[in-house]
Amino acid sequence: MYRATVEIQGLAPLSQSRQHWTPKLDGESNDEYDKRTWREKANYDSLTGEIYVPAMALKQAMDTAATRLSIPDPDNRKAKMTKYFVSEVICESHLPIGAMKDEIPSVTISAHVTGQRGSGARVPRTFPQIQEWSGVTTFLIMNEKIKPDMFEQVLATAGRAIGVGQFRAENGGLNGRFEVVKVKYEKI
Asked: Count of domains in the chain?
């Protein structure tokens, strides 16, 4: 078992769309509500206000990349390594990106009213969007069949082809792509 400390650099803007439960004001329209609460769509530390990429977003990007790559299991030619990535690689911490909730810019897009493609009507929606972002997080790799070069291949694919956040590459978007700047390994 080993831990990988990973430094990530954003290659495209990061936009987030976290569901929040901010109450609506009396008589407030949906448009007014969206304009007032768009910052709440960011994932942020409630004490410091620092924006982060959730650990689970990075984990899911890794799982999807491992599935797409379909790397053969070196010990069993008929099996793939995907199951080991899904069950035995954990992103241990959120990725703080150095941006603060109260200072971030926004982007307003024409979104499907239901949030689903092809649903018909569109409405303006505002989301937090950070142009430049980077940070450090850790992954726990619990199966040594997953070699460092294999881990880095899957993580690089997750960054280029999957991404994180709203309008990410996995969903046909342009946002949330990243590159791996540095990885440091520690045997546990």
From this structure: 1
